[in-house]
Amino acid sequence: MEWAPMRGTAQEIIRFGESSFSFEVSVRTKRTNLQYSIEIGREEKSRGGFRVLRETLKFRSRTIYTSHPGGGDPVDQQDDEAHLLLRMEKTGDQRRLGARIAVRPDQPALTQIRDHTKRVVKSHKDIADDLVDTLASIRFLDLVPDAMRRPAFPGQAVLGDGGENLPTVLQEICADPKRKEVFTEWVRELTPMDVADFEFPRDPITGLVQLVIKEVGRKSISAYSASDGTLRFLAMLAAILGTSPAKLYFFEEIDNGIHPSRLRLLLDLIEGQTAKGGIQVVSTTHSPDLLSMIGDLTFTNTSVTFRSRHSASSKICPVAELPEAKKLRSAQGLGRLHASGWMEDALAFTEEEADPEGSEE
């Protein structure tokens, strides 16, 4: 599991004078109910500059492992500077405490549990692996036109975070006639091109696979000549309609490079595919046009991110929870409310209502 690096420098991950940062994630499905938390602090002595300070994995009401069990447990003291100590869940004939294990502190214990062959039982390893697999199925796509234009090595079936491997991902989709038909129909709807087919010629010297779009009338356009918007459409379609879609996609500025007349179709595609329950999509946007088009279900899951003048941190608030949001959306449209600055005004108002003393300072 490897994601593209975050924006900014390592020193900027921990901000505003804090000594550490943490996050928690819950995974709930019909078969899985996992809760995972991790806290990471600076560690100048390590090569990466960070150290895991705390980590816990829970399965339903059970604690599979934790670095701070409490209750006088010696593991809670973390007196081994070279390792992060974990207390595993008690199993089998262990009477009082589960096994104590030591893992490297420069990476999550979650990815190290599998390597402990003697002191970690298989059921605990399987639970950790389930979460690793779930996290690995989260994709952060920040599509780069130049990356999508480049030829790809044969057999690459996974789209890169910047859109790498687009030719071979599309080649795999087109190998299935039914999937190809659905894909081609969406391309025709979403782009001004009258697409008839796709071709995937190989470079005679390097063997790399290239992308060529064939329009009606046998006009062929290579990926090098296609517009940025067309390539973004192709990549988003490939991600969502591909043979092995991820469970969760993040798209930054999903409307970037997309003609306003095509936004409705793109939104229909995403809302339709997510409604089937197989995938989830999280996207950012500043587009009033796009916000005016979203359906009721998408509206209930739309949030606004803002920076409070009384806090150094950003906050996320569901738009539907803002005062009179549903009524105003129905009367004026969410895009108009966004363009007029109503969301910021409503957030400032609710903040002052919640903290009248702080607003006077």
Summary, kept brief:
This protein has 361 residues and is an alpha+beta fold.
Key traits:
three-stranded parallel β-sheet; 361 residues; 14 strands; alpha+beta
Helix count from the secondary structure assignment: 12
Approximately what portion of the residues adopt beta-strand conformation?
15-25%
Number of strands: 14
Radius of gyration from the alpha-carbon trace, in angstroms: 25 Å
Q: Reading side by side through the largest sheet, how are the strands ordered?
A: 1-2-3-4-5-6
Q: What structural class is derived from the secondary structure elements?
A: alpha+beta
Mean pLDDT: 87
- As a percent range, the share of helical residues equals 25-40%
Cα-to-Cα separation, first versus last residue? 47 Å
The helix/strand series, from N terminus to C terminus, equals: EEEEEEHEHHHEEEHEHEHHEEHHHH
Shape: globular
Write down the domain tally. Answer: 3
The low-confidence runs, each spanning 5 or more residues with pLDDT under 50, are none
What characterizes the major β-sheet? 6 strands, antiparallel
